[in-house]
Amino acid sequence: MSQTSPRDVVITGIGIVSPLGIGRDAFWSSIVESRTGIKKSTLLSYVPTPGCIGGEIADFNDETAKKHHLKTKDLRKSLKVMCREIQLGVAAALQAMEDAGLAPKAVDPDRIGVDFGANLMSSPPEVLIAAAIKSLSERSGRPAFDFDKWGEQGMSGMEPLWLLRYLPNMPGCHIGIAIDARGPNNSITQDEASGGLAIGEAANHIRRNRADVMITGVTGTRLHAVKSCHNYHWDILADGPAESRVRPFDAHRTGEALSEASCVLILEAREHAEARGAKIMGTVLGCGASAVADREGTPDEATAVFNAARVAMHKAGISPQDLGHVNASASGHPTRDRYEAAGIRRILGDGADSVPVTAFKSYMGSTGSGAGLCEIAASLLAFQHGVIPKTLNFATPDPEEPLNVVHGEHLTTTNGLFLKTSVTRMGQASAVVIQA
User: Fold this and answer.
1) Which end of the chain has fewer CB within 10 Å, C or N?
2) Which of the four pLDDT bands, split at 50, 70 and 90, describes residue 2?
3) Helix or strand holding residue 274 (H, E)
């Protein structure tokens, strides 16, 4: 393991808006009490998931955003150009800055940057209805969409600032403006892998002395009137009671639950954090990334996970036996969990049957790009209480690719070194090694 140096990258703040609660205290309370955030949707009238169930942040809406989460005058004005995912990301960033003890203008604007992960963002159907109606023509006695009418007539039914509400680079833009962060600013759209990639890029900015502080976050949703339709075709969605619907790595898992969330970590140069007396929650030791597919484009998730983890562990200077646990990306998908398990078993080698593994999507479902940092936050907060979070709903190991899955009770530990793996259905993977 590398020796401590002034440009070590440490974690000094957490902001989180999730189905388990808003803020680290509410988030941790759900974990320690083993409460799932998966339940029947109340904000959406319909989503194409079994029973309209998913991981919804029911207490976050336009009114609560104005009153509590985005309450400054400038941000309230900006709400009209923020879709829900952007609002979640900005709220988590402001929360993380406060958690880190960084007051507005406490950092030289040129020395604080933003690295943010997000999915492609979709308009809800009601945003397009007026424009679609203006583009109708009669065909064979029935109304039909007329593409020739779209440019001149349909477009006039769109919101003037429509595009700004749904661009995946806008969370980083709004955060940069709100906090006056004029340092490096980038956006990443790599689905579940986004969080690990954002950490890797942000950490490199700090190590190269381009910034002292990086607001590093993700936001994402799959619980969406349009996106849920896509996921219904792409993924196997779980059925059954909400509280036991998601069963990562279990031999009898039946699929994913769709969800929404945002999480932000404040990354900081160690010397900068120590100089201001910040509380350090963890150190980023190494990051890796990989994308693997064959000539036909068929992804190889197992190899991608292995490659990314191998690079992260090499950069961290650790071996598998050093790890306290692995925090996996597993969602309960019948085949994809097995691919990731194969990659994890390969990287752990002889330790595959002994190193504890936890899968946090059992608590909050699949959020797409919003997942990775929520899962890291869970491991960081759990170690402050001396435990590794258990995986909910796990009972029977998968005989094909078994892992030492933490279940039944949270596992007591004194080893805060963990590996976080994330992988997409397209075979893109990221991995991060963190010393909590």
Assistant:
1) N
2) very low
3) helix 270-275
Q: Are the CB atoms for 9 and 205 separated by under 8 Å? A: no
Largest separation between any pair of C-alpha atoms in the chain = 76
Distance CA 84, CA 222 (A): 12
Tokens 């009238």, located at residue: 45
pLDDT of res. 5: 63
Query: Are residues 224 and 199 both part of a single domain?
Result: yes
Using only C-alpha atoms, the chain has a radius of gyration, in whole angstroms, of 21
The helix (H) or strand (E) run that includes residue 281 is none
Strands 428-435 and 185-188: unpaired
Residue 312 corresponds to which tokens in the numbers above?
A: 């992260």
pLDDT tens sequence across 208-238: 999 999 999 999 999 988 888 877 677 899 9
Domain with 131 in it: 125-164
pLDDT at 25 over 60: yes
Domain end (from 164, 188, 221): 164
Give the DSSP letter string of 337-399.
Answer: HHHHHHHHHHHHGGGTTTSEEEETHHHH-B-GGGHHHHHHHHHHHHHHTTEEPPPTT--SB-S
Q: Are 354 and 273 in contact (CB under 8 A)?
A: no
